[in-house]
Design a protein that fits this description.
The model has no long low-confidence stretch (mean pLDDT 82). It is built from five helices and twelve strands. The termini are far apart. The longest helix has 34 residues. It has two domains: 57 residues, Irregular (Hormone receptor fold); 143 residues, Rhodopsin 7-helix transmembrane proteins (Rhopdopsin 7-helix transmembrane proteins, Up-down Bundle), CATH 1.20.1070.10. By secondary structure, it is of the alpha+beta class. The strands form six sheets. It has a two-stranded antiparallel ribbon. Strand 9 and strand 10 form a beta hairpin. Helix content is 50%, strand content 17%. Belongs to the G-protein coupled receptor 2 family.
Length: 216
Amino acid sequence: GGLWCNRTWDGIMCWDDTPASTTERQSCPHYIHGFKTSNFAVKTCTEEGVWYFNSKINKTWTDYSSCVQEFSSNFQDHLDRVNSITTFGYGASLVSLSAAIIIMISCRRFHYKSNILHINLFLAFCFRSIFALMRIYLFTYGYAMSIDMEEKGGLLIFKPGSHWQCRLLFTLFHYGIAVSQSWIFIEGLYLQMLFYRTLMTQQRGIKLYIIFGWSK
């Protein structure tokens, strides 16, 4: 007998049937990066037998505040410095590689098969740098794009939807990582073929190398 809150999934964890006027708690999940697993998430079943509803965000509420690790100001300053160094590194790489590509394309004396592979390698790293910089500047607090989040009652929450822009950005970012590593392998493979099978390499050209390098 008595009132119970029905078991529910809050988007992060599953909560069992809970008696009314009861506060249930569970260990913070280990599969959420940055959560402190030694602390507890809390969800309240009201005396009416329904889960506590937060009117500020217009949905039932689970308190994960104790799960989030608070960073000291010194640690945040360190993260800001790392972010600045990363931005400078990717920016310098993008500028220097773009200049190298322009020089190699504009000068006819550089129009060799091996240099075409070098250009593709540089393009792959430019591609990676562009989407890495976009990820840094378009994400809010490193969690999601600003268009996918909104603030209600002082809380940042995800908007409902497919979030296809975020998915596309991350897909292209990881594709950039994959092809940049792939082109390092292609460069090494081509050099190996030059050393040991020079005639075969000259006859077959570099089309297969280019196709393989960008197909990752």
